[in-house]
Amino acid sequence: MTSLAPPVPSHLPAHLGALRASGYEARSVKAEMRANLVERLRGGQPSFPGIVGFEDTVGPQLERALLAGHDVVLLGERGQGKTRLIRSLTALLDEWLPVVDGCEINDDPTAPICARCRRLAVEQGDALPVTWRHRSERFGEKLATPDTSVGDLVGDVDPVKVAEGRSLGDSETIHYGLVPRTNRGIFAINELPDLAERIQVALLNVLEERDIQVRGYQIRLPLDLLVVASANPEDYTNRGRIITPLKDRFGAEIRTHYPVSLDAEMELIGQEAHLEAVVPRHLLDVVARFTREVRESPSVDQRSGVSARFAIACVEALSGAAVRRGAIGGEPNPVARIGDLAGVVPTLRGKVEFDVSEEGQEEETLQLLARRATADAWRSLLGGGDVRPLLASLVAWFDEGNSLLAGDGVPATTILDDLGPHDGLGRLVATLEPGMAESPGMTAACVEFAVEGLWLTRRIDKDSLNGVSRYGSA
């Protein structure tokens, strides 16, 4: 979904007569989305661009629901991409939609439903002005909060219009809410269980009869909408905060999930993180494994979930650590290193809900899980193959009494100068970062990852103090 719509193309009809002459045929939102989705499926295009990890699970279920013309509830823990998925649905709308110029509820010029547009259609006939709305403008979204009112969603009397001299019985005195203002589009409600039950009642007609009722007005507006809601499974099923008649009116209930595979987790991190410095792929591997370790840890309250924002924030903080080191040490092209992770972990504490039995041990638990993830990534990436001779050479070098300083304040050139020449460093970089050009920062990052893994597998020793680590013989 884009924030600003592009300018309306000049060739599109500007009044009702020209619109009819163009061969325009009105169709419902769901029919429009169904046709566009079928076209995407036939062409092998992604149905929901930018959505990672749902290709074989959530995606097909949502496709079936949309093709059936169902309104949908997405159930999932925080940070599973529910809102992103909902917003991606606008890509299935037609690019441009004709509406009566100035209409608050996007009336179809060939069949207006509000009192104002019906009056204008009679008065002006084929001269009725037509404007066009881009697909990005046909999406309405409301975060359900306890203070949300019926007026916010459906509408209420507009005192300004009454003050202008109109009668309270005149339906044109209505100030429409978000739902009718999204007519002929997609309306989304995030965190639906947080909506007060008496307010949920106002949505019953919207979902079933497709109309709205405003106060005591004798008015019926047949709305054309796709309604999509999101909810946390705990709220939706256990606490019973969505009234039964409303649940019954949604045609499909679809469970979302966190990325199933490590590759999908890494792809999601790479897609969403905004980086100011290079974060090597082997660090993305570590962060992805770290996130999965936290999600599976018995020390963490699994009912609240561990959001994808946990991993994204971690990678962005690693990028920030590299920028800081570059500024302090004068590195022109800083690269994040595994030693930065220990300093980043404490900043992630607020993104995880721990079991009450872990009170006071939260940071220690996260650091332990981070080390476990690092060791797993090291075994996967460097546990065999062509780098074994280099790893053996590094162990022998440390056994000779040499030591290596690393940490968030140690420049890459210092690490490489202290290490000196070693056969196989180029092979190490090529193994961990295939396709990446060698640079002092990248080489130092790969070396630090290699020696960190040697320490985690108990082949060398490490002492850490104030963000600086000294690797030496075991």
What's a concise summary of this model?
With 474 residues, the protein is of the alpha/beta class. The protein has helices spanning 16-21, 29-43, 58-68, 82-88, 115-124, 150-153, 159-163, 178-181, 197-200, 204-207, 233-238, 244-249, 262-272, 281-296, 308-329, 341-344, 362-382, 388-399, 412-419, 425-432, 440-456; strands spanning 72-75, 96-100, 130-134, 139-143, 155-157, 174-176, 185-190, 225-231, 252-255, 404-407, 460-465, 468-473.
Plain-language structure description:
The chain is an alpha/beta fold and 474 residues long. It folds into 2 domains: 16-255, Rossmann fold; 262-473, no CATH class. 42% of the residues lie in helices and 12% in strands. It has 21 helices and 12 strands. The strands form 4 sheets. The chain has a 5-stranded parallel sheet with strand order 4-7-8-1-9. A hairpin with a 2-residue loop joins β11 (460-465) and β12 (468-473). The two termini are 55 Å apart.
Chart the SSEs and their pairings.
Layout: H1 16-21, H2 29-43, H3 58-68, E1 72-75, H4 82-88, E2 96-100, H5 115-124, E3 130-134, E4 139-143, H6 150-153, E5 155-157, H7 159-163, E6 174-176, H8 178-181, E7 185-190, H9 197-200, H10 204-207, E8 225-231, H11 233-238, H12 244-249, E9 252-255, H13 262-272, H14 281-296, H15 308-329, H16 341-344, H17 362-382, H18 388-399, E10 404-407, H19 412-419, H20 425-432, H21 440-456, E11 460-465, E12 468-473
Parallel strand pairs: 1-8, 1-9, 4-7, 7-8
Antiparallel strand pairs: 2-3, 5-6, 10-12, 11-12
Helix pairs in contact: 2-3, 13-14, 13-15, 14-15, 14-17, 17-21, 19-21, 20-21
